Amino acid sequence: MNGSANLNVMQKAARKAGRSLVKDFREVESLQASVRGAEEFVRKADAASEKILREELRAARGTYGWLTKGATTEEGEDPTRRWIVDPLDGSTNFQHGLAHWGISIALEHKGQIVAGVVYDAAKDEMFFAEKGAGAWMNDTRLRVSGRARMIESMFATGIPYAGRADLPMVLQDIARLAPTCAGIRRFGCAALDLAYVAAGRYEGFWERRLNAWDMAAGMILVREAGGFVEPIKTDGNILEDGEILACNEAISRSFAKAVRGKSA
C-alpha cells in the first residue's frame, strides 16, 4: 500500500532507527552479567534511535512540533502539527534480550492523530495507518478480530511495577476480567499491544497509566482496522489521562464494562 508523503517519511525514519536498534540489540546478551552496564547500553541505544528519528523527521518536516518521552512539547513553526514519538517502547524487554519492542511514531494535526507507524524491527513488521486509508502491516490490510464472545477472547494489558500506586486497581481489573475471557497477556510494549489488536492477534487491550507517545500511533491503527478506542473514564481524554481501552467492535460493550467496573 502506498501512503501519503508524511507516511512515507515516517516509515523511512522508523526503518533507519530500527536498523540501529537491531544492531544494538544483538550486543545486549553479552552485557547481561552487568545490570548497570546493560542499563546504560539501552539508554544509549534509545538515545541513538531518538536522534535518528529526530534528524529524519525534522529534515523532511522541519516546521512540525515534537513530543517524546522524558521531554516537554517542543513547539514548531506550524502550531497545528506535531510528531509524537517513542524511539524504543519496550526498553525493559530490550535490556533483557527479549525481542518484543518497537518504535512508535504518530502525527497529530489539530489535536487529532492522523497517521501512525509502529515498527517491530526485530521481526520486520511495519504497522501503519492513516486517517481514512485503513491500517496495514507490511503489504497486508489489517482488520480487528471478528470474535464476538468474551470467553473466546484474548486481551493484553500492562502491570505496574516498583510499587506504583495504580497496581491495586489493575489487579482488580484483572480479577474482574480473567474469569470472562480466554487469557490475559502482559508482554511489556503498549505500542505493539495496540498493533496486535489492529491485526486481530488480540481482541482487546487496556492500560491505566501510559504516556501519549506509548499509544498515539497504536490508537489510529486500531481505529483504521475497524476497532473501538475509548478512554477508560467515559468523560476522559486518552492522550491527556493516559488511560485507554481498545478492542474489536463486537465485544466493545462487554469489554468496556468489565474494565471500567466502578471506576468510570
Structural description of this entry:
This protein is globular. It contains eight helices and twelve strands. It has 264 residues and is an alpha+beta fold. The protein has helices at 5-28, 35-60, 91-95, 167-177, 190-198, 212-224, 238-241, 252-260, and strands at 65-68, 81-89, 102-109, 112-120, 125-130, 134-137, 140-141, 154-157, 183-185, 204-207, 228-230, 244-247. Keywords: Hydrolase, Magnesium, Metal-binding. It catalyses: a myo-inositol phosphate + H2O = myo-inositol + phosphate.
Low-confidence runs? none
Main β sheet profile: 7 strands, mixed
The helicity comes to 25-40%
Q: Shape, please?
A: globular
Distance between the termini: 39 Å
The average pLDDT is 94
Subunit arrangement of the protein: single chain
Catalytic activity: a myo-inositol phosphate + H2O = myo-inositol + phosphate
Cofactor: Mg(2+)
Keywords: Hydrolase, Magnesium, Metal-binding
GO molecular function: inositol monophosphate 1-phosphatase activity; metal ion binding
Brief account:
The chain is α+β, with helices and mostly antiparallel strands and 264 residues long.
Ordered list of secondary-structure elements with their pairings:
Elements: H1 5-28, H2 35-60, E1 65-68, E2 81-89, H3 91-95, E3 102-109, E4 112-120, E5 125-130, E6 134-137, E7 140-141, E8 154-157, H4 167-177, E9 183-185, H5 190-198, E10 204-207, H6 212-224, E11 228-230, H7 238-241, E12 244-247, H8 252-260
Parallel strand pairs: 1-2, 8-9, 8-10
Antiparallel strand pairs: 2-3, 3-4, 4-5, 5-6, 6-7, 10-12, 11-12
